[in-house]
Amino acid sequence: xxxxxxxxxxxxRYGKSLALDGVDFDxxxxxxxxxxxPNGSGKTTTLKAALGLIPFEGSLTxxxxxxxxxxxxxxxDVCFIADVAILPRWLKVGDAIDFVxxxxxxxxxxKAERYLAITKLKPEMKVAxxxxxxxxxxxxxxxxAIDAKLLVLDEPTLGLDIxxxxxxxxxxxxxxxxxxxxxxxxxxxxxxxxxxxxxxMFIREGRIVLAATMDEVGERYTEVMxxxxxxxxxxxxxxxxxxxxxxxxxxxxxxxxRSQLATLGExxxxxxxxxxxxxxxxxxx
Amino acid sequence: xxxxxxxxxxxFWEHKGSLFWAPVVVAAILLFITAASAGYGMLAHxxxxxxxxxxxxxxxxxxxxxxxVMQQGVAQVAANSYLAAAAPLFFMMAxxxxxxxxxxxxxxxxxxxxxxxxxxxxxxQMTVLSKVLTAAVVAPVITMVTALVxxxxxxLIMGAYLAFNGVNLFGLLLATPALYLAPLFLIGIxxxxxxxxxxxxxxxxxxxxxxxxxxFLWAIGVPLIALVIVKWVDFxxxxxxxxxxxxxxxxxxxxxxxxxxxVPGIWFAFSDHTVTMRPGEHGVELGTVFMQSWHTxxxxxxxxxxxxxxxxxFVAIRxxxxxxxx
Lengths: 285, 326
Known about the structure:
The complex is a heterodimer of chains A (285) and B (326).
Chain A: E1 5-14, E2 17-27, E3 32-36, H1 43-50, E4 57-62, H2 71-74, E5 78-81, H3 93-103, H4 109-117, H5 132-144, E6 150-154, H6 162-176, E7 182-186, H7 190-193, E8 199-204, E9 207-213, H8 214-220, E10 221-226, H9 231-235, E11 241-245, E12 248-254, H10 258-262, E13 265-268, H11 272-279
Parallel strand pairs in A: 3-7, 3-8, 5-6, 6-7
Antiparallel strand pairs in A: 1-2, 1-4, 8-9, 10-12, 10-13, 11-12
Helix pairs in contact in A: 4-5, 5-6
Chain B: H1 2-14, H2 16-47, E1 50-53, E2 56-59, H3 68-81, H4 87-104, H5 107-110, H6 114-118, H7 124-164, H8 170-174, H9 177-210, H10 215-238, H11 247-260, H12 286-295, H13 300-322
Antiparallel strand pairs in B: 1-2
Helix pairs in contact in B: 1-2, 1-7, 2-4, 2-7, 3-9, 4-7, 4-9, 7-9, 7-13, 9-11, 9-12, 9-13, 10-11
C-alpha cells in the first residue's frame, strides 16, 4: 500500500520566518495520525499545504496528487474540517444537505440524515441561530457522510464542551473509520485523542521531532516511578524528563529496556501528553 | 453542469434578499401606490366632481369624449412603453449587483466559510463562474421577470381605470403587436448588457478577491485616485499650452466603463446614438432601444472592456485559489 501522504523536504516560508523547515514524512493508508505540536509549530501549515490551500516548496504527494496543481482531482477523495464554526451563517440545515448531496458524488444522504436525526437540528434551522456545538454537529454530519479516502481534521473540537468532544471522537471511530480510510488530526487536547490514534507525529518549530506508531511509542518510552534510593542510578540512564508526584520522582526514558528500568521502580507507558511535554520542553523559552 | 446548477442555487440562497425580495417588494409598493391612486380616482369619479388639471377645468368623465384615433394612440404608447414603468427596478438592480459582486469573494473569506466551500469538490473556476453568472444573468433575469409582471399589472390597473371611466382600451391593447414584442426585446438586450457589465463585474470581483478589508473603498477609491493622478500628469504635459493630450478623457472613459457597467442602458452614454424619444407619437419604442443597443456593439470599446473584464475575472480565480486565510 503506497503512502496516502508523503512529504520530502516540505518547506514553507511566511516572509522571513520559516513555518516548515524541510519536513519529511509518510502516512500509510488506514491509519489515524495525530499531528501534535505547540502553537505556531507548523501543524496547520502542513495540513494547508496538503489540502492545496497554500503554495510551498519541496515535494508533497497526497493520494498520488500534487496539491498545488491537481487540487480539483484531489478534492474528490479528500475532505476536511478546517476549523469549527466556518459554516456560513445564512445556510439552512436542509439546504446544506441538499447542496452537499448535489455537488459531492461520494455523499451518502441517508447517513447524514441519520446523524442529524439524533440531534436537535431541524431542516429549517439556520446556522446563524445555532450554538457552536450544533454547528459542529451539522458540519460533522455532512463530512462523515462523505466517503472520502482521507479526512483531515484541524482542531475539530476547539471550543466545544466535553460532551460534544466525546461524542465527536466516538462517532469518528465507530461510524466513519475503516481500513480504507486515513484520518489526520491536529489538536491541543492530546488526552482525548490518544486512545484513538494509531500513529503519532510531533512537530516542533517546523520540524518533525517524532514520528512513530503508538506501538513503537509504547516500546520506546517508559515512565518509571523511581524509588528514593535508586535516583542516582536512574539519572545515570539519562531520563528525558523528570517530575515529582507526591514526593516521588517520575522519570521518562527513551529507548531503555523495560526490564532494566523495572529494577528502579514501578514502570508504565507514558501518556501522550507527558511525552509531548517532555519532547517540547523549551519550546516557548 | 449539475455542480454549477447547485452553486447558482447557493448564490440565490445567500442573496435571496437582494436578488429576489428587493425587486419584488419594490414592485409591490409601486403597484400598491398605483392601485391606490386609481382606486381613489374611481371613488372620486363616483362623487362626480370637477377637477383642475394644469389650470384647466376638466371633467373626470372626459375620457368618454376621447376620439377613436386618440384612443388608438394611447393604446400604442401604452403597449410600447409599459415596461418603462419598471425602470426603478433596473436601477435598483445595478446597485444590488454592484454590492453583490463586491462581497462575492470577500464575505466568504471574512467569515472563513471559504474553507468549507473549499473542502468540497468545487473548483475555483466554477465558483467564480457561478458568481459571474449570478451577477450577469440570474439577477437581470429575475429583475426582468419581476418588471414584466409588474408592468403588466400596471397596464391592467390603468386599463381598468379607463374602462371604469367608460373607455375600454383592452381590445386595442391586445391587438397591438408591441405588447407581445416588448418582453422579447427586453430579453434580447441581455447579451448587450452582459458585455457592457463584464468590465465592472470583473473589476469588483477582483477587488473582492484581493482586498483584506474595506472592499468598497478600494473599488471606488483606486479608480478615483488614478483619475486624479492622470489629470495631474495631463496638466503637467499639456497644461501650459492649454492643450489636452486626451489622457483625462481616456481615463474617464475607462473609469466610467469600469464602474458604471452594471447600469442598464449605460451603453448609450458611450455611443453617438441617442434614444429617439417621440412622446407625441408612440412613446419610447423598445424595438428602437433594442436595435440601438445592439448597434453599440459595433464600437471596439465594448469588446476591449469585456476582454479586460474577463482577464480580471481570471485574476480573481487565481486569487481565490492561492489566498491564504491565515
